[in-house]
């Protein structure tokens, strides 16, 4: 009888734990989604801004190589960000601490994703003005 009662208690605790785990925020998944979306937006902005600039100015093929290089460089950065968040999510920090870190990293990620295409076009303009 005691063994049956303890099994029920253990089973109930497991159910409670799995319910809490399923309702808790999955920070690493949220950051992974943010990285994927930011990467898509970044790449689309690079393509449209750089291509429109190249067509109006008639510059050489060098900016195309720069575009490929910048997209190739940002992919490992996003992957590193995702791995970092897998470690942070499993670190046992409080939800409030995780939420604050997530928001800070999310803002940084989106500033880079939205700002770097403008920086790249600016660099191309400066190089084009010099040469």
List keywords for this structure.
mainly alpha, 131 residues, single chain
Tell me about this structure.
This protein has helices at residues 2-23, 27-57, 62-89, 95-130. The protein is mainly alpha-helical and 131 residues long. It has one domain. The protein starts with a helix and ends with a helix. The model has no long low-confidence stretch (mean pLDDT 79).
Task: Give the SSE layout.
Elements: H1 2-23, H2 27-57, H3 62-89, H4 95-130
Helix pairs in contact: 2-3, 2-4
Summarize the structure.
Helix content is 89%, strand content 0%. It is mainly alpha-helical. It has one domain.
Largest sheet: none
Order of helices and strands: HHHH
> Strand tally, please?
0
Estimate nothing, just give the exact number of structural domains.
Answer: 1
Helical segment count: 4
Q: State the helicity in percent bands.
A: over 70%
Q: Give the CA-based shape.
A: elongated
How far apart lie the N and C ends? 88 Å
- Which structural class should the secondary elements be placed in? mainly alpha
Poorly predicted tracts of residues: none
**Overall pLDDT:** 79
